[in-house]
């Protein structure tokens, strides 16, 4: 099979006939010419006949039939064989060269048009032995439904042209059906507003997808206001039984320092009584505590104010701890990519290779730098996977939706250290968490960095986001890619244009 200009596919048709068949060879050629004239443009097919008299050349080093097989027989896409009275000259493997050529084609799963002539013949010119071999050969194939008989050359011509036409029409239909029932994979970009595009937009990475800093800050401000408006009853610490040993409750100094410092930075003026809990006290008799909880004595708002101030302190600590993480990641150039299957069938075992110049792609070893405290906070309190992941939405699925996972069992015991003998290496854990969150494998290949990503499956008419954005050092004009999969026989080579929309 050969691809010709204008999307015409050429098929080589082998003519295999013993020496007594001559006129049929010319008829075959005429039928092929007529077929090409009528159907070549509409079907995108052109048939070219191959015959030993025309297609072979002088060559030494092997037996004649073996030479013919290697020169052109094995390269043919289909064959037409015609028998009359002679079976042909035996080869080393078969009763004749024609039989050997037929078997080669059938073993390769290729189409064979086979015909037996029942034309009149003079008894004196009939070779009984040769004709007997034809009858034996015909008997061999009688149950395989691959041969036809004819009585006249006109009948043969009509018969062969009909078979040739029907074969390529059905072949074309089968190919179209297969094409229609096939996956079709193509790279897409995800814009900042979450739409799928045919380009990849370079933008600044924002951690707001994970933690909305502005919302968190606004809640902190609101918490100050709520606390300030609470009316304190100033109940006495000696409520009820005067013999109860009650201890006055006050806000811890470290909590006051955190809350006051941030209030100053936010230009929030705290009233002198902001930390005043009125007459709130704690019953120090253990028997009166409930399930290990502190037993406070005082008014409803006094207790509420105590809880709100401590909760505010925790919110502030979390916020302040988060800011270095945000500063480390935010502002890095990146692209968000996805894989689309716009075909009509599911695909599996998908492997994607993306090619970048070394100067354009940020390698895993070049991840944002954190100090030890920030790394510890990130590991203990945050999830890098959630921080970096591209979340699914109505327009596309998340990467997790393409993965068939086996149950994961975490055997790590680094959180259990009763004696304090082990010191956790948070920098090392951070690096490992970063690699796990990105999912990608990145390889050096010459002057290129190659990103490798695998998907277990992708449904038809669906889009799956990459697990995380790809971080950039430079701005490529395009990203070249290769895609291989279980249900697409050929490797897909393509590229997606890159547009700089990062606003710098």
Question: Your description of this structure?
Answer:
This protein is of the alpha+beta class. The chain has twelve helices and 21 strands. It has helices at 23-43, 52-55, 64-71, 97-107, 128-140, 153-180, 213-229, 253-265, 300-329, 372-381, 384-388, 426-438; strands at residues 2-4, 8-16, 45-50, 78-83, 111-117, 147-150, 185-190, 196-197, 200-204, 246-248, 281-283, 296-297, 333-335, 337-341, 347-357, 441-445, 448-458, 462-465, 470-471, 478-484, 492-500. The strands form four sheets. The protein has an eight-stranded mixed beta sheet, with no helix packed on it. Strands 1, 2, 3, 4, 5 and 6 form a six-stranded mixed beta sheet that branches. A hairpin with a 7-residue loop joins β20 and β21. α7 packs antiparallel against α9.
Give a topology summary.
Layout: E1 2-4, E2 8-16, H1 23-43, E3 45-50, H2 52-55, H3 64-71, E4 78-83, H4 97-107, E5 111-117, H5 128-140, E6 147-150, H6 153-180, E7 185-190, E8 196-197, E9 200-204, H7 213-229, E10 246-248, H8 253-265, E11 281-283, E12 296-297, H9 300-329, E13 333-335, E14 337-341, E15 347-357, H10 372-381, H11 384-388, H12 426-438, E16 441-445, E17 448-458, E18 462-465, E19 470-471, E20 478-484, E21 492-500
Parallel strand pairs: 2-3, 2-4, 4-5, 5-6, 9-21
Antiparallel strand pairs: 1-2, 7-8, 7-14, 9-13, 10-11, 11-12, 13-19, 14-18, 15-17, 15-20, 16-17, 20-21
Helix pairs in contact: 1-6, 7-9, 8-9, 9-10, 10-12
